[in-house]
Write a structure and sequence with these properties.
two-stranded antiparallel sheet, about 35% helix, globular
Length: about 150
């Protein structure tokens, strides 16, 4: 699902300039069910429509910029093309971790700094809180520092 091709995050001391992303490999390493968590981010319409989703359904997705057609799973397609555009997708009541995760769902997992994330979730001035949350010992929902391929 990731549109970036990150290298597994090494031990890094994140700074306010560190970019973060969803490390989808983390979900496999931790034996977590990503599709179950992704389903929790669906709008009510798609939660009902994809209630029996098991990760097998593929749909054609056309990149609006390049015209390239790719096969993607229907859960990811619904999230990226419909649910992220709903007003209730990201509200003031969305938890910090869920809000950050949803930003990455909406932007195709393009890495962002804590301050950029704070702006996107409409919590200005909370960049340091986001940094502390994402750079602690515990990894929340695969949200980890992004290490570009050329830095490996």
């Amino acid at each position: 699902m990731t549109l970036t091709s990150p290298v597994a995050s090494r031990l890094v001391k994140p700074t306010p300039q560190t970019k973060f992303h969803i490390d989808y490999d983390w979900w496999d390493r931790e034996s977590r069910a990503l599709h179950v968590y992704l389903q929790s981010h669906l709008c009510p319409e798609h939660q009902a429509a994809l209630a029996s989703y098991e990760g097998e359904d593929l749909v054609d997705s056309v990149d609006p910029e390049t015209g390239e057609v790719q096969r993607v799973d229907s859960l990811q397609y619904a999230l990226r093309n419909h649910c992220v555009r709903q007003p209730e997708f990201l509200t003031a009541h969305t938890s910090l971790v869920d809000a950050v995760f949803r930003v990455f769902l909406a932007n195709g997992n393009q890495p962002l700094t804590p301050e950029e994330l704070a702006e996107r979730i409409n919590r200005p001035g909370q960049g340091l809180m986001i940094l502390r949350t994402l750079s602690g010992q515990r990894v929340y929902k695969g949200l980890r520092p992004y290490i570009p391929d050329d830095a490996a």
